[in-house]
């Protein structure tokens, strides 16, 4: 897994607001032939970001999001974020005029792109709609953009003792090192390691590792891996064990995610 690299200085934001050529919602589509990293930046508009053909990794502060499948990310205007788009992925970004479209949430949030919402967003990319048609479609879009009840968010620790361990776990989620092994490697007790992770991320070490593995497996599923392949890629010996962990974190089975 490739993490976004956050620069020391904030990249320049967009100097001028997006010009909405037809209405209050405007969509863009970008296809990436090679891995691309977005530096820290923000937009003066609300944004709904989603991916096709793989997964986009987005870092907002210390929160790591995986944008894949039908799970999009709502990014309120002015939110600073960075990201990584793997080669072969298509990103779809829909921008919402903040002067005329209310923020769905004040914080970033996962949003399910249902088939109807996806079709409407594609419908609004055309300039061939008259004012009435566009207004009606935009109103339905705003009704359909709703945060999902169980988002998958991974809080990244910054404590010098465990930050490096977290990045190593994400880089090799299939590694078999457990709590006791990591505690020995870091020279602390298992209880101290668990406490550090809970203080930094809101999860104990084992819970954080499970969430990290599931997030990495989502990338594999989004790229077309089978459920068994995705589970093995993040260290689960059996599909059933992987399914239990995946459902605990996401609220759905790997198969349900794969076929959304």
Question: What is the secondary structure topology, with strand pairs?
Answer:
Blueprint: E1 25-31, E2 36-41, E3 46-52, E4 55-60, E5 63-68, E6 71-75, E7 81-85, E8 90-96, E9 109-112, H1 115-123, H2 131-144, E10 153-155, H3 163-171, H4 179-186, H5 190-201, H6 205-222, H7 227-233, H8 239-250, H9 254-258
Antiparallel strand pairs: 1-8, 2-7, 3-6, 3-8, 4-5, 4-7, 5-10, 6-9
Question: Could you walk me through the main structural features you see in this protein, from its secondary elements to its overall organization?
Answer:
- The chain has 260 residues and is an alpha+beta fold.
- The chain folds into two domains: 25-144, Jelly Rolls, CATH 2.60.120.280; 158-258, Homeodomain-like (Arc Repressor Mutant, subunit A).
- It has nine helices and ten strands.
- The protein has helices at 115-123, 131-144, 163-171, 179-186, 190-201, 205-222, 227-233, 239-250, 254-258; strands spanning 25-31, 36-41, 46-52, 55-60, 63-68, 71-75, 81-85, 90-96, 109-112, 153-155.
- It has a five-stranded antiparallel sheet, with no helix packed on it. Strands 2-7-4-5-10 form a five-stranded antiparallel sheet, covered by helices on one side.
- A hairpin with a 2-residue loop joins strand 4 (55-60) and strand 5 (63-68).
- Helix 6 (205-222) packs across helix 7 (227-233).
- The longest helix has 18 residues, at 205-222.
- The protein is elongated.
- Residues 1-17 have low confidence and may be disordered.
């Amino acid at each position: 897994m490739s993490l976004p690299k956050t620069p020391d200085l904030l990249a320049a934001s967009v100097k001028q607001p997006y010009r909405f050529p037809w209405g209050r919602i405007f969509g863009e589509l970008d296809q990436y032939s090679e891995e691309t990293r977005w530096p820290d930046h923000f937009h003066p508009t609300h944004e709904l970001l989603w991916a096709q053909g793989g997964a986009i990794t987005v870092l907002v502060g210390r929160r790591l999001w995986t944008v894949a499948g039908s799970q999009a990310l709502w990014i309120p205007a002015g939110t600073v974020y960075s990201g990584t788009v793997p080669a072969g992925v298509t990103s779809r970004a829909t921008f919402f005029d903040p002067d005329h479209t209310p923020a769905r949430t004040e914080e970033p949030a996962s949003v399910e792109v249902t088939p109807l919402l996806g079709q409407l967003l594609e419908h609004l990319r055309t300039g061939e709609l008259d004012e009435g048609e566009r207004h009606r479609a935009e109103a339905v879009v705003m009704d359909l953009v709703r945060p999902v009840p169980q988002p998958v968010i991974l809080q990244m620790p910054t404590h010098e003792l465990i930050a490096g361990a977290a990045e190593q776990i994400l880089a090799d989620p299939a590694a078999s090192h457990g709590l006791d092994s990591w505690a020995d490697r870091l020279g602390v007790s298992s209880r101290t390691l668990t406490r550090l992770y809970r203080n930094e991320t809101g999860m104990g070490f084992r819970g954080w590792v499970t969430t990290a593995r599931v997030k990495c497996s989502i990338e594999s599923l989004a790229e077309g891996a089978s459920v068994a392949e995705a589970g093995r890629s993040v260290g689960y010996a059996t599909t059933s064990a992987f399914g239990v962990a995946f459902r605990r974190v996401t609220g759905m089975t790997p198969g349900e995610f794969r076929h959304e």
